[in-house]
Amino acid sequence: MTATGVGIIGYGLNLIIQFTYQTWFGSNDPQSILHAAARGGPLPFLLSFLGGAIFTPFGEEILFRGVVANALNRYGAFAGVVLSSIIFGLAHGVSVILPVAIMVGLLSAILFRATGSVWPSVVLHCVYNGANSIASAFGFAPMP
After folding, report:
1. Model-level pTM?
2. What's the mean pLDDT in 75-79?
3. Domain regions of the chain by residue span
4. Which residue of 33, 80, 117, 118 has the lowest C-beta tally within 10 Å?
């Protein structure tokens, strides 16, 4: 339950970050292809949802929390949470996605550290990405 709530909070923070970015730097959506797929009809939506909201979070959380954060945790909370989140963000590229991915990484890493399990982080990430997919399907993407 906590992971689901944190995923929803993360989606709200995502909107704030993206609207702020758009105000400061203008429109530039590096994930426009994903938004277009979500709006492309039932089959493209289903495929993008499965890929983005199920398979991607599973793989990313196993790698970034299960391997990277776990390895960095031996150097303390800062390394395990903050450094793994920065690495997660950088892996997503330098654009509006960077601060958003760092934020999701921080939420996931805190949850991972608190629970000692990668599974709540997987749920959080699935909920967060799923909210993005559904919002995109209804034509609501923070950036045009």
Report:
1. 0.87
2. 94
3. 2-137
4. 33
